[in-house]
Amino acid sequence: xxxxxxxxxxxxxxxxxxxxxxxxxxxxxxxxxxxxxxxxxxxxxxxxxxxxxxxxxxxxxxxxxxxxxxxxxxxxxxxxxxxxxxxxxxxxxxxxxxxxxxxxxxxxxxxxxxxxxxxxxxxxxxxxxxxxxxxxxxxxxxxxxxxxxxxxxxxxxxxxxxxxxxxxxxxxxxxxxxxxxxxxxxxxxxxxxxxxxxxxxxxxxxxxxxxxxxxxxxxxxxxxxxxxxxxxxxxxxxxxxxxxxxxxxxxxxxxxxxxxxxxxxxxxxxxxxxxxxxxxxxxxxxxxxxxxxxxxxxxxxxxxxxxxxxxxxxxxxxxxxxxxxxxxxxxxxxxxxxxxxxxxxxxxxxxxxxxxxxxxxxxxxxxxxxxxxxxxxxxxxxxxxxxxxxxxxxxxxxxxxxxxxxxxxxxxxxxxxxxxxxxxxxxxxxxxxxxxx
Length: 437
Known about the structure:
Layout: H1 7-10, H2 21-44, H3 48-54, H4 60-89, H5 113-121, H6 124-137, H7 139-158, H8 160-165, E1 174-175, E2 180-181, H9 184-221, H10 224-278, H11 284-310, H12 313-318, H13 320-330, E3 335-340, H14 347-368, E4 373-380, E5 383-390, H15 404-413, E6 417-421, E7 428-435
Parallel strand pairs: 3-4
Antiparallel strand pairs: 1-2, 4-5, 5-7, 6-7
């Protein structure tokens, strides 16, 4: 058997008692007890009718009333109590080998407290969390304490003859949990039981921790489908964070090139021009300085092209409509631009839309044979729709290295999707949909 990855898998491992699993499981159960105490304290408030019922004798009608009242109070307060308790409890499964359940799915609070409460109380995950918190306040601490006390009890059983011999004559019998012993022969059955219970306690601790970790993961995170959904949500959020970091780094590079390298090149070009004026015309030195001056100007032009490719200044200053118009002016194919964007869009959305149009127009100029193209951009609530069409030969295929695959990846990173219609003979229509929220 391969090395187990969870406490439940470790139960079938022959080397369990010699491994760290019993100790890790014991640490997990110890960490569970404070959370269980907090859960019990919070649930004690809505469970007051049940506590009152347990404290005395009442007529049948009162008993039914108290049971129903306690259940109603727990149902009313449970989803709210479960929020902080589940947030702490879901961090523990990693100790017992299961991956931590993570932050869980957040209920949107858009619209104020009432919509948030409505969403919370209609969310199945909230009721699963409430169920686990009820287990955490009742069954889990009992089983955890029993499993943790198994090893100390086994050690006490094994040491019972020595405890009897250490007693002073006339002293009370030694208490061993389930009975009392006053002589060594009376302690021998406890010694036998302790020898059996001591290795068994490692399995009990591991079983209790593994069962609780599996239950916590199932109730706090849900079934396989919901776990996959949560993981996909986290992957999407992580991809968005990486895209944001990439955009910030790209802007920093553009700013450093514009404010640093380009300014130095401008200064160098001016100094070379002034030096050229001070040299005799036609001299070897004047020719060398003139050549260097020309190279500096060419390098400045190339640097401006590079900066423009990283982050077009018109896009930063004037927004997407102006940037798309500039792209259309620089395209060899006549392009008409139709935009209806009243407000500025988020920076990442503008950048993605701009470079999508730039890549599409480049493909049109290189591969389509089109005589005209059109670009439209519309915002429909929280969705930006950009369409690029041409009257070319069609047949655009991402597998032919036309840049469409990279374009689709760029759109996907921004959380959008790309649609392409390009039958042989044309026309071609590329549509990018980008969320603006």
